[in-house]
Each structure stands twice: as C-alpha cells, then as structure tokens.
Write a structure and sequence with these properties.
heterodimer, A: Rossmann fold, 2 domains, 4-stranded parallel sheet, B: 437 residues, mainly alpha, Fumarate Reductase Iron-sulfur Protein, Chain B, domain 2, 0% strand, binds iron/sulfur cluster
Chain lengths: 258, 437
Amino acid sequence: MNIMTMAAFAAKGEQPEILFWVGCAGSFDDRYKSVTLAICKILDKVGMSFAVLGTEESCTGDPARRAGNDFLFQMQAMSNIEVLNGYGIKKIVTACPHCFNTIKNEYPILGGNYEVIHHSELLQELLNQGKINLQGGGEFKGKKITYHDSCYLGRANNIYDAPREVLEALDISLVEMKRSKSKGLCCGAGGGQMFKEPEKGNKDINVERTEEAIETGATTIATACPFCMTMMSDGVKNKEKEASIAVMDLAELVAKFM
Amino acid sequence: MVSSMIFFACLAVAAYFVFNNIVKIRRNINLGKAFETTGNQGERFKKMIFIAFGQQKMFDRPLVALLHLFVYLGFLIVNIEMLEIIIDGLFGTHRVLLKFLGNSYHFMVNIFEFFAITIIIACVIFYVRRNVLKIKRFWFSEMSTAPRTDANIILVAEILLMSAFLWMNAADLSLQAKGLGHYTQTGSFLISSHLVPFIDHLSAGSLIFIERGAWWFHILGVLAFANYLPYSKHLHIILAFPNTYFSNLLPAGQFKNMPEVTKEVKLMLNLPLTEAENAAAPAGRFGAKDVPDLTWKQLMEAYTCTECGRCSSVCPANITGKKLSPRKIMMDTRDRMEEIGANIDKNGSFQDDGKTLYSNYISQEELLACTTCNACVDACPVNIDPLSIIMDLRKFMIMEESKAPASWNNMFSNLENNMAPWKFAPTERFNWAKKEE
Ligand code: SF4
Ligand code: SF4
C-alpha cells in the first residue's frame, strides 16, 4: 500500500478525495500507529483516494487549549490552517476526537473551514454504502464487546450512534456499560490530564471506568480515541486482565474482518 | 377596615424589599462582562420551554422528576389562589372569586387542594431523602450547614404553607355548615372536607380563629418566602427561565475563542489583522481572576444553581475523590459575587478586599483536576456550564500566573519546539508509514 502525502498529490497537480489527519498519537504512539495503519488499509481497500500531511502535520493545539494555554493553541491552529488552506483542503477525516473537535469547531473562527468527520463516521458511511463487506465473527463470534464513549466524540459533539452502528455490523454482541452515551464516564485523559499526573484522590479515573467495562463481561473494549485507548489499556493492566480483555479501536476491528 | 390596612402595609413592605433585592441581584449579575448569545431566538425559546418549563433534564431520574414537577406545578397553580387572597385582604371581602366563578370556583379550589396535598407528600419525601436517607450528593463537603439548612427551610415552609391552606378551608367548611357569618356555601372540598371532623367540635370563635390565623399565616408566609428567595438556592424557580433561554447552542466541545489572543498571535506570525482586530482595545487580563472577569451569563448561572449536585455526582474527578466539585464552583462564584455586592453596598464602590475568586475561593488543585469531559454540563437540569468558569480560571492560572505543573510546561515546550505534545522530532512524524513497508 502506498501512502501519499499532500505534497506528492500537489506535485502531480492532483487533489485527493479526503485528507486523513493522523494526529500526534497516530504518528508517534506505538500502539496507536496500528490504528493509523488500519485506517489507511481500509481507505486503500475501498479505493478512496486519500492523502496525509506527513511531516507537514503538527499538533492541532488541543492539549494546549484545554490546559489553559490559548496562545500556544492559536499558534498551532493558525500555522495548521495555513498549511491546510495552502493545499486547498475541503474534507478531512481524523482518527482522534480531540483533533476532530478542534478542527471542526474551533478552526473556523480562525479561518479554517473544512468538512471534518471522525473515522467512526467514515466507517459508518462506508458500511452503509456497502463499500465495506465484513466477514462473520471468527475468533470474536459469540463474544461480548463494549464500547467506551469518548467525551469529545459523545457529549462534545453528540456522536453516539456511528461507532455503535459500526460495531453492530460486526458479528459480535454489543453490551453497554452502566454509564454510557451521554452519561458515559470519562477515561480521565481529557483536558490535558493525559500529560500530567492526576490530582490527589482516592482512585484513578481510568481504573473506575475499566472496572465498569469489566463488569459487562466483555472480552473486548472498543474505543475511538487514542487517549481513551491508552487509559483503558492501562486500566486493564492495572486490573491484570490483559490476557482476557483486549482494547481495540473501531478501525482495527473493521480492518480485521474486511 | 383595620385588617385591610394592616394587610396593605404588609404587602407594601414585602414589595419594597422584593424590589430592593431584585435591584441588587441585577446589579450583581451586571458586574460581569458582555456575553455573546448563540443560536437564534426560536431555538433558545424552545430550550427554555423544554428545560425550564417542561423540566426535561430532570427526567433522567424519573421518580424525583415527577415529584419535583408536582411541587413546581403546584407552586404555580396555588399561586393563583394568591390573587384571591390579595383582593380579599385589600377589600375585606371573603372568597371574592366565588361570585365571579360560580360553580367553577368549587372545581378550582379542588385543584388547589389536590396540589397542596401532593406538594406536602413530595416535600416530606424530599425531606426524608435529604435528612434520613442522606442521599450522597446532598452531603458532599461543599454542602455545609448553611446550604443544607436552606434546603430544609424551604421544604418545611412549603409543608406549613400548604397545611395552612388546607386547615383554612377545613375551618371555613365547618363554619359554613354552622351557617355562621359571611361564610358562604362553597360545597365540600376534595381534601379539607376530610379534616373537618377534627375541628368540627370547636366553638365558632375558635374556628374563626383557625380560619383567619391560617389565612394570615398563608399570606405572610408567602410574602416571607418571596423575600427569602434571593438569599436561597430557590432563586432557580425564576432564573431557570432566562438561564435556559441563554443556553449555549454550540457543540459542547467548542471552547470560545479568545480574540485578544488571536490578535497577538497574528502579530507574532505576521498575519494580516482584520478591521475589528485592528480596532480592538489592547487585551486586559487573560482568563478570569475574579467575578468581574466572568460574563454576566456565568454570574446569572451562579444565581440559578439549585445546588442539586447532579453535576458533581457525575464528575469523574469528584467520583474518584479529587477536590474538584462543579457544584462548589457555582456556589463559590455566587458567594464571591455576593461578597463583592455587599462590599459595594457598604463602600459605594468596590474597595479592594485582598480576595479573589481564583485562589481564595477556588484552588489550583481544583482547577487542575478537570478533564473537560462536559459531564457536569450535560447533567445540569437548568443548563449551567460549570466547565466554562473552570476554564476561564484555568486560563488565568496558566497564562497570567504561569502556574502550570512541570509536566504541562514540558508538554507546552514540546508543542512549541516539536509541534507535538511529546518529545519526538517533527522529522519522525511520518515514520509510521515505514512500519507498513
Ligand atoms: S468537565 Fe470538569 S468539572 Fe465537569 S464533570 Fe468533567 S471533570 Fe468534572
Ligand atoms: S450546576 Fe446545575 S447540576 Fe450542578 S448543582 Fe447547580 S443546578 Fe445542580
């Protein structure tokens, strides 16, 4: 599979159908790189022409803004907007709810106007259009899966159904946690928490959430956000359940069954 | 005649104090900065109807919601009764509406009595939930004696007021049956007729005493209630309406832009400024340090807060024992706002008291614990946004005070130097594609 950059497209005088915004975790985090590759694989298989920014991409600025440093956020945002506008980008898919929220909601006022979708929405669309055909269950057959709502996808942007529809298309039984959808409990990473130690308390948020996921009896916890993935994986480790419970992104699950 | 005059005096005094309080609340809310509304009027009106009037968000917990709805509807409806009381009080008439309404009067009073009894039942249940069952969210650390007492005062007051109303009717019925004085026949009432046997044996004098006593207790109680409101969390019965009308209609994840920062960043990056940016006054303070740095909407929210604690009971930080409690953020904002108001009342204009909302009321530890998950915003039955206040204070703390934890400072410098929150070289950003080959 050949992953092309925007620069390469521009050199040929062509425009891809969609820009895949990989994000920092998708670029650097060893675990999340496999989600990035899964998305590329899916796009490649369905024959959608896409590009990435490669080394021209930089952080959207989300962690800076949520941590209260709006200068740094706007510096990042404005230089990203210059790059995106320079290439005349119209449509973007992100693999991260934080990138998604920032580019979709917070870039327009700074001059960046694009149609932005999250990869769960893209997957839902491709499934609905029949472009992705999933083979039945295999190793997952009859097993339970639970979906952990990302705050920045769910409450922040009201996306609850797309990820669930994607999971329902797989031959697995979806079970909900006690707190789900708009009542879903945060994994603990948002608001810049990913980049600092938690404040003093009596429990880690990700452990609380993981316990809830374990209660469902699911053998897979599906996530749609790199931070959630890290937090839930750490939670599973903390509970010493790595052998029996997997934490996987929607895209990885879909790629597996294509 | 004398009683009409006393009544008029009570009414006038109460109205004077209520008016004064309204002026003060308005003044305090206007301590805040300008606020930009979102969405259009129609959408916001709809929010108000569904969430304030229809109490839509309460129904996440259906049983309590139903009880609360009864208390609220009862409150609205029984207040129609106030109209009659005021006319009777001022003109020395008795059950003046009876003449106008004829047969429907009987029906109306039955409705009042139905609500009176449901309010009593609901308030007893609420009282038990708070004080006997001790539902957790009513006992978080910010729920010190004062806010707990506030809640109980209102519940007890409601029970007493409604009981007075029922006993008044019972005494009236008994007097009617005895054919005494001006007690015109109304026909028996839904609830109070069952109370008659308890007092029927009393003398006419005692019955009149009960009837009049309950009547005065009811009206004076309501006037006292109106004056107690401004000091209580019960202001929400009024402010829930404007507060939901000014709801944020943008996606919850969208933080408001800081135009003052945009201008400086553009200057730094050599980008052209828009006309508005050129004309804009130089930036004051980044973020919020004290109450006047917040918007009037945020201050109105503080007055609207019902102290129900639904926000804190779903807050991931609070659930896991961190110091942060979004309800406390709202209570602190109100306390500080009222402190500034009292300062102005005393000194004519605000005199520095060496205190601020940031740090004196809300600590860095609280501000740092928020995950910006929006659970509190989603849970609030009257659409309050504690997160926006947390973020404004956090911005002040980070941008003006530079009080970021070391790990955040590392993240900031990684962002500045490597364009990623982690320490990876930007040149390695596309290396993931190599893994594939
Ligand atoms: S946004 Fe912050 S204060 Fe509100 S529930 Fe989430 S962590 Fe708690
Ligand atoms: S902010 Fe809303 S949810 Fe929280 S205590 Fe106040 S009214 Fe209740």
